[in-house]
Amino acid sequence: MTSSELWSRRTAERYDAEERANSSAEALGPMLDLLAELAGDGRALEFAIGTGKVGCPLRERGTPVSGIELSPHMVAVLRRRIGEDRLPVVVGDMATTVVPGEFSLVHLVYNTISNLLTQDEQVECFRNAARHLAPGGRFVVELGVPPLRSLPPGQDAAPFDVSERHLGFDTFDLVAQLLVSHHFTRTDDPETGDAGADEPGADDSARFRRGTSQHRYAWPAELDLMARIAGLELERRTGDWHGAPFTGDSPKHASVWRRPA
């Protein structure tokens, strides 16, 4: 049994609306450019394909896409966009589920490898990617760099978004290499959240929905070792999808490992 948390029906139904800013052509364009380039004339397999935010537009560019997704509720939303005959999806976990055929590209984006909460499962995810790749094929992972330098001495929490409609912060277990993301999202649903506090600057009409998710963070060098265990070699690592150099100050990376021909 995978340690990944299962996305509920309610979460799946509101996922696309909450991710609208990250789903625009401008936001997705650089990622899709690289994925289509790496797939070439071959097929792509997306681990944790979700509602098809990436898989569907990649398919529209002419790349045959298949998917693996743990949550049947996410797949149900995806099916409103595209049929099984055009984008087949197997319900299962990305560390062990096998789909037919070979692929020139396996990709896992939006920090989703961190949903696997043990190192062993993350290693198996790399092995599963290698299992699906044709010789010369690539495995692409997008993952944030743990922002541990932003933690004040003696503290275990760091904010990652403070805006009018959303407050997000992570709490860290440095020994277990785990974090919990906490989200307070403004909502117009009168049955969700608490009314604004009776304080200066408070909005009495504001209501917020609280959500949490668990993640296991991993450093780039740790991922490289996982790749080596799976028989993959690091080909490139950039600080974003535009190809910016990866540096010690980069908040995330897009890494490409290759199965030797």
Which characteristics define this entry?
261 residues; alpha/beta; Rossmann fold; 4-stranded antiparallel β-sheet; 6 helices; 11 strands; 24% helix
Q: Secondary structure elements and their pairing?
A:
Elements: H1 9-18, H2 25-39, E1 44-47, H3 55-60, E2 65-69, H4 72-78, E3 89-91, E4 103-108, H5 119-132, E5 133-144, E6 157-162, E7 166-173, E8 178-187, E9 207-216, H6 220-229, E10 233-238, E11 252-258
Parallel strand pairs: 1-2, 1-4, 2-3, 4-5
Antiparallel strand pairs: 5-11, 6-7, 7-8, 8-9, 10-11
- What kind of assembly state do the chains in view correspond to? single chain
Number of helices: 6
CATH topology of the largest domain: Rossmann fold
Q: Roughly how many Å apart are the termini? A: 33 Å
Sequence of strands across the biggest β-sheet: 3-2-1-4-5-11-10
The CATH architecture of the largest domain can be named as: 3-Layer(aba) Sandwich
Domain Methyltransferase: 45-137
Region (Disordered): 1-22, 186-209, 242-261
Keywords: Methyltransferase, Transferase
Biased composition (Basic and acidic residues): 7-21
